[in-house]
Design brief:
The protein is an alpha/beta fold. It is built from 13 helices and eight strands. The longest helix has 22 residues, at about 45-65.
């Protein structure tokens, strides 16, 4: 079984960019022509079904169009789960379609529990027979590393990955992540490195926000084999250098993620048009090209066309 790290690296060299596009169906930002089918009805089962149908109509063509253009996608589970069973069914379809198209899928679910509960979450999200089978999943490890182990067991068996929240950049994160000397985040980083030292597939990665770019080189030194998932590129203010600050010596090991800036162009209002796929693809290609050009400027081999 080929591990997550080699699979991630192979995909990077195939598409020549590390961009991960978030699939975040903010209902109030969807095109007006789609919103009108469910607006004002979300309090009813029929309305939630209508909204889920709209999300599928919006998301699946986007996934198809991005297939050969970016490294992968990152569906945010909450935006689907808010619609109940119909929304979860669409999430399953999005994950399956993306993997069929060759995209790698990081399911942004931020699960976190222990023992049999964590094992159930892992089966649902990482096992090939699970309903939301993805290539990787995000996990909240702040209950302890025993929340991570059940996910790692499934990931290692099936060549998948686990991304633990290490340095998020929300305002309240410092309460836990920066506490103590050494910081709790550094202790977690060392635990990640220890796990990966015996795992040639580098199944365990970390989430490091682009706004924590100043810390990224030190975290890379602590975790030489870990893949970094880097949210915050674009709408949250992160630039190219910020997003790639944690790259290894070959410019690999980082996966910058952008959602709102690609999906909606940073606009909070619904798109009045009927072609949402074309603009999304244009913005994704533009950002992917900028990442590639940055890689070329640094002499990184994956960026050479």
């Amino acid at each position: 079984m080929v591990g997550f790290g080699p699979r991630a690296r192979a995909r990077l060299h195939t598409v020549k960019n590390p961009l991960v596009v978030g699939i975040d169906p903010h209902l109030h930002r969807l095109p007006a022509v789609l919103r009108e089918r469910f607006e004002g009805q979300l309090h009813t089962p029929a309305g939630r079904q209508a909204a889920a149908d709209v999300v599928a109509e919006w998301a699946l063509p986007v996934v198809d169009a991005l297939a050969d253009k970016v490294w992968g996608i990152k569906p945010q589970a909450a935006f689907f789960e808010q619609l109940g069973a119909p929304g979860v069914a669409v999430l399953e379809r999005v994950c399956a379609r993306a993997r069929e198209q060759g995209l790698l899928v990081i399911l942004d679910a931020k699960r976190g529990d222990i023992s049999s509960t964590a094992a159930a979450y892992a089966h649902a999200t990482l096992h090939p027979e699970g309903p939301m089978a993805a290539d990787a999943v995000t996990v909240n490890p702040w209950m302890g590393m025993d929340t991570v182990q059940p996910f790692l067991a499934v990931a290692r068996e099936h060549g998948a990955g686990v991304f633990v929240l290490l340095r998020t950049t929300n305002p309240g994160s410092a309460m836990f992540q920066k506490y103590g000397s050494p910081r709790c985040a550094d202790n977690l980083a060392d635990a990640v490195a220890a796990e990966n030292s015996s795992d040639a597939g580098s199944a365990l990665g970390v989430v490091v926000g682009a706004q924590a770019a100043a810390e990224a080189p030190d975290l890379r030194a602590r975790m030489p084999a870990a893949w970094f998932l880097v949210p915050g590129l674009g709408a949250q203010g992160g630039g190219l250098a910020d997003a790639l600050a944690g790259a290894d010596a070959d410019g690999e090991g980082v996966l910058p993620a952008a959602a709102r800036s690609v999906l909606f162009g940073g606009v909070d209002e619904p798109d009045p048009g009927t072609d949402w796929v074309g603009p999304i693809v244009d913005r994704a290609e533009d950002l992917a090209q900028k990442l590639r050009e940055y890689g070329v400027s640094r002499g990184w081999s994956w960026a050479v066309v």
